[in-house]
Specification:
The complex is a heterodimer. By secondary structure, chain A is mainly β. Chain A has strands at about 5, 10-15, 20-25, 30-40, 40-50, 55, 65-70, 75-80, 85-95, 105, 110-114. Helix content of chain A is about 0%, strand content about 55%. Chain A is globular and about 40 Å long. In chain B, strands 2, 5, 6, 10, 11 and 12 form a six-stranded mixed β-sheet that branches. Classes of the chains: A mainly beta, B mainly beta. The interface of A and B includes residues 4, 50, 102 and 106 of A.
Chain lengths: ~110, ~120
């Protein structure tokens, strides 16, 4: 079974703090994704990576950065957390396979910024 | 750019009743289509997907969906729901092109299915 794990289920941080959210997958997937999920807005893509050290902006990259130094690990960084970044953050991974496209999701990290 | 519209934000039904969750998409190119389910306090898991072939797709837990190209729809159905089907359901689309960002998914805003006894 594919497993995507996220470092924390719940996180509380203060405004202005630097926040790291970690994601690890164990199936040698090339693609990894970070989404945020807000009620009534569904999932919105923040960043994705299609290879080590490669990244592309998603739909809402402002206020976020990412790092992918190893294939299995994809980190989301909030350089200076703000209250409007309080949200559920979901990591996902997938094969770079023309006939696949299925994304496998982690359990999510609920981040509260106070 | 593609977009996905889930026409109902909430659908309450009684146990053993049939249910249909509606999804429409817009895209200028061919697409791949997905339904994901999110149970409370969990991540998303794939219910079913349409890549090509038969337009009627069967998924896990008795769900099925029908791809209708002329109506640009991909509605999800189940003939008889259980309490355990209570969850949020997301429709998603990926572009069918030969390169670039064709592995990105665009999600709808979700439909909360509540099954009551």
């Amino acid at each position: 079974d594919v497993k995507v794990t996220q470092s924390s289920r719940y996180l509380v941080k203060r405004t202005g703090e630097k926040v790291f959210l970690e994601c690890v997958q164990d199936m040698d997937h090339e693609n990894m994704f970070w989404y945020r999920q807000d009620p009534g807005l569904g999932l919105r893509l923040i960043y994705f990576s299609y290879d080590v050290k490669m990244k592309e902006k998603g739909d809402i990259p402002e206020g976020y950065s990412v790092s992918r130094e190893k294939k299995e690990r994809f980190s989301l960084i909030l350089e200076s957390a703000s209250t409007n970044q309080t949200s559920m953050y979901l990591c996902a991974s997938s094969l770079r396979d023309f006939f696949s496209y299925e994304q496998y999701f982690g359990p999510g990290t609920r981040l509260t910024v106070t | 750019a593609q977009s996905v519209t889930q026409l109902d934000s909430q659908v309450p039904v009684f146990e053993e009743a049939p249910v249909e969750l509606r999804c429409n998409y817009s895209s200028s190119v061919s697409v791949y289509l997905f339904w994901y389910v999110q149970y409370p306090n969990q991540g998303l898991q794939l219910l079913l997907k349409y890549l090509s072939g038969s337009t009627l797709v069967k998924g896990i837990n008795g769900f099925e969906a029908e791809f209708n190209k002329s109506q640009t729809s991909f509605h999800l159905r189940k003939p008889s729901v259980h309490i355990s089907d209570t969850a949020e359901y997301f429709c998603a689309v990926s572009l069918h092109d030969s390169g670039g960002s064709n592995y990105k998914l665009t999600f709808g805003k979700g439909t909360l299915l509540t099954v009551n006894p």
